Amino acid sequence: MALASLLVVFLCASLHVLHAARLPPGSSPIVETCKPVPYPESCVRDLGQRLLDIQTTLASVSDKSSTIAGAPGQVDPKALVAVALDAAAEAGSVAAAVFEGKLPGFNTSVPDFQKCLSNCTVTMKSAMKKIHGASAAVKAGANDIAKTLASRAIGDVSSCTLSCRELNGDVRLILQQSLVEFQKMLQLAVAFTSKLKPKPGPPPPAPEMH
Q1: Any idea which architecture 33-56+70-193 has in CATH?
Q2: pLDDT of 178 over the 90 cut
Q3: Which of 18, 62, 100, 178 is most buried, with most CB under 10 Å away?
């Protein structure tokens, strides 16, 4: 039952993706921002909408919300990185739940699944920790650290994807979708982190008065 419910969620999400796959007509800040990065349509469709939802919610309670995530419809690069990391964490949590045995209905005795589990259980936990670390680093303005952690998380998931390529059926569909989305969002996070300006350092000490 849990497996079927999860599959329905993924199928509904896929239909939503297909419905929204076209880029908005004309030029807009999010379209222009997403043009030079990997997966520009996913960037506009997924990150753009998430960012707009956050901006609209903030604007509904404060006239100073633009200082947090930009004004609705505008692009705040730092907020876009945070949104990409959040989206990656959501996708990763699905795969992590499978690897940790939290979703009933999977036959874990199948040799191919055993190989997948043995290689990915620890790897996925490590990747999720790196995402949380990257999020903290972005908030602190430590952009290089955030980029490094997100890049290493991509490497973790790449090796995991190879270990699970022999799976089939519903479990393959669920893991493939979640891991692919995980990597997409992380690659977008890395791309936008590279564009962030470094946090200004402390001002130089005042000269001593003689």
Answers
A1: Up-down Bundle (1.20)
A2: no
A3: 178
